[in-house]
Design goal:
globular, Ammonium transporter fold, mainly alpha, 4 strands, 11 helices, two-stranded antiparallel sheet
Length: 325
């Protein structure tokens, strides 16, 4: 059984991961205590515990199957670092989904999010990579399978219990903090600019050709939910391209798919659009890996030409081979 190693995160990547985890934890606590989050208090707790348990279980099984040490082994710091992505995905599902007092829809979303990282992945150069944003995948699956009983949390919950000043300060603070993390640590500013620019463009196109209200289409960009999605979900470094050109394509495609979904009267288009684009990137990468693995056409070797050796010169009989002086 060959041993598989998983590369460690870079210093910037690890710093960004820690700040993302800290930000979403503080926002969850403040949201439930002061802002007006609609979910039950147990929702984020159950979500996090589910994510931790599944992460330990699946990582142990995967490490055993590929004859490698589990990523949480070695020290308490390794355990914390290993659990950070699961922590972020769990709190995102708990914050953005609304199932009233029921906990199982959130548990289902977290289960899909964590399992998707181990199931829906490709091995590139011997290294496993997942292409679907975990929390977005879990939210999408839950909205599709429980469409009659589960929805996205109402946008007003982020500022329900605050005054008019906080209505402006809170989105601004989230925007600044997220932009600093993405600009300095994740390098995803080209993706953000392409996504925001593409979103405004699709709103304009819908207003011109489909007679949609342009102010309403653009007003979505001012909400806390859109800012959170832009700075903390669509910019996931593990599931988005690293090259600036590819980031621009990814952001524009996400905005284009969102516009098509809205034109088709599909609700919750942000989450569905990101899942569709991630699926397209997954399939494209899979097709490229198959093509690169195909053996090239056999080339017949041309035998080297045989060069006849010149025959030795014939010496007439009676001639001396000794030099004369």
């Amino acid at each position: 059984m060959s041993q598989t190693t998983i590369p460690a995160r870079s210093a910037k990547g690890l710093t960004a991961l820690r700040r993302f985890a800290l930000s979403i934890t503080v926002f969850t606590v403040v949201g439930h205590l002061f802002l007006g989050f609609e979910q039950a208090y147990w929702t984020p707790v159950v979500a996090v515990l589910t994510a931790y348990a599944l992460s330990f279980l699946l990582e142990s099984a995967d490490a055993w199957a590929h004859n490698r040490p589990a990523r949480y082994r070695g020290s308490a710091g390794n355990v914390v670092t290993f659990l950070l992505p699961a922590h972020i995905a769990a709190l995102a599902c708990a914050m953005l989904l609304y199932g009233n007092q029921r906990l199982m829809p959130t548990v289902f979303a977290v289960t899909v999010a964590i399992c998707g990282k181990y199931v829906l992945r490709l091995r590139l150069g011997g290294v496993p990579r997942h292409f679907f944003n975990p929390s977005n995948l879990g939210i999408t699956a839950t909205l599709l399978l429980f469409s009659t009983s589960v929805a996205i949390a109402p946008p007003y919950q982020f500022t329900e219990n605050v005054g008019s000043v906080i209505d402006w300060v809170l989105p601004g603070a989230i925007l600044v903090a997220g932009s600093m993390i993405n600009g300095k640590l994740t390098g995803r500013m080209p993706l953000i600019l392409a996504w925001v620019g593409g979103f405004a463009l699709q709103a304009l196109i819908r207003a011109v050709f489909l007679d949609h209200a342009l102010p309403s289409a653009l007003l979505t960009m001012t909400g806390v939910a859109f800012i959170l999605f832009t700075n903390y979900m669509i910019t996931d470094p593990q599931t988005t391209p690293s090259q600036p050109r590819d980031q621009v394509i990814f952001g524009l495609c996400s905005a284009l798919v969102y516009g098509v979904l809205v034109a088709a009267h599909v609700t919750f288009g942000l989450f569905f659009a990101l899942t569709i684009v991630c699926a397209g990137r997954f399939l494209l990468t899979f097709a490229r890996s198959l093509r690169s693995a195909e053996p090239g056409p056999a080339v017949a070797e041309t035998p080297a030409p045989v060069v006849a050796k010149p025959a030795p010169a014939r010496v007439p009989a009676g001639t001396s081979l000794r030099n004369t002086t």
